[in-house]
Amino acid sequence: MSGLRTRDEAPSAVILVGGEGTRLRPLTDSLPKPMLPLLDRPLLAYTFDHLRFAGVERVVLACGYLPTAIEEHFGARFDGLELEYRVEPEPLGTGGGLRFAASGFERTFFALNGDSLREADLRRLLTFHRERRARATILLTRVSDPSRYGLVRTDDRGRVLGFVEKPSPDQIDTDLINAGLYVLEPDVLDLIPHGRAVSIEREVFPLLAEQGSLYALSLPGYWLDVGTPASYLQAHLDLLERDGRVVVDESAEVSADAILLPPVIVGPNVRIEAESRIGPFVHLGRDVRVGRQVAVRRAAVLAESKLPPQAVIARAIVHPQLGALTP
Predict the structure, then answer these.
(1) Is 52 exposed, middle or buried (0-12, 13-18, 19+ CB in 10 A)?
(2) In the annotation, is 166 catalytic?
(3) Model confidence over 250-267: pLDDT tens digits?
(4) Which residue, 236, 267, 233, 231, is CA-closest to 252?
(5) What is the pTM of this model?
(6) Are 118 and 19 within 8 A, CB to CB?
(7) Catalytic residue among 41, 107, 148, 166, which?
């Protein structure tokens, strides 16, 4: 099969969004991680874009922590996607959460974590999965420092041979890691114990690897795990670099003698006062107020934040209640 041509062939997707985002506190004290703003859009919206581009039409969200905020924002449909919310009665881990959310699925589906940015070709991943007649297929990505992650070892056809968690230097023989996105057959759910927290990566995938039915494929494309304040800021900087311009919303008010150094994105209803210097690599979210003689560079200034006169902000996330957070 080479593509997604009919509605019947379009796979569904399950997104795990139940985590508390503890590494991102205090940003996630009152907001679930998938709803953190990224250039004035929730992080989760970028995942929806990626899935829709791959032909996905239905998404089930496995929720846990502060689920109401997600459902109230996106509703039952978002940009052509049909959305369903299933709230875990207790934390069930990646495996338990998938079994809970994908109950009733009868066709091949995507399963993924909701806290990463990815741009790999998921149609190609799905085709690979079907050609290998796999029960599960892992998307792999290359990283510069594999020691921080779990390595995935494969043969020349992509069959998974084994895993190495947090490898020591002498164990690193590949730079390919699990990117947190899978193609699964519904019968994989039968391998997940019911009613308790289960890690699909540590409990289910090793079993499938032993059976020879687990595959993995490395695909080119951007990938970032947005799990810490540093990576959250990096996500902003990466998207700004991609645009590379000075973009000012038509509703913004920018003093004639303010300096904007690209890349800069100025959101709706922002006001920048005289003699301020904004950029490079700055996003000013909606309704931000920038006082006189403010200097900002390599920063994400979140919506409704206020920068007082003569403030100097560098490599920081600015929150309207928490102030400047330096990762």
Answers:
(1) middle
(2) yes
(3) 999 999 999 999 999 999
(4) 267
(5) 0.91
(6) no
(7) 166
